[in-house]
Task: structure prediction
Amino acid sequence: MFARFTEGARHAVVRAGILALDAGRPVLDADLMLLGLAEVRPFALSSFTASGRDVRERVDAGDARSLLATLGIDLDLVHRRTRAGADEPRAWNLRRSRLRPLRVTLYGPLGEIPLAMHARKVIEVAMWRPGPVTGERLLWGLLADYSNGAAGILRDAGVDLRTLVREAGIPFRQVA
Result:
């Protein structure tokens, strides 16, 4: 499935998967997909004003870093020493199960994690049109389903959603 992804879009999905694995989550959900996009920023959208830190404050990504810091352990240093190359996007695969077509799983050197329904929808919307899957397409997938909470997180972080949708070229229909 990653064959059509740009390097940046692929890196954002891999980052989201690593965040989900680090947080001990059983699935990769849309909130961490948004955090992965905010941290990697595989686009040049001036209206995407939320930083990775802004999004992280609104998402439960686990708090192992501060807990280990109280013990004198630098989690970033541990990751650099033990995960060399593990975050390389080309080392990861995104595959749909042949037997269970609604199951999409991210596989990589740090483990595997299935995508929750909302995260799978992000990927499916991003891949809906022909052509490369870009960061803007992933953003479209996140904003296409209001029930996944991504729009609320961005709005709470101060992002003007109307401007973002226009700038990203996301098709939308005005409801009267």
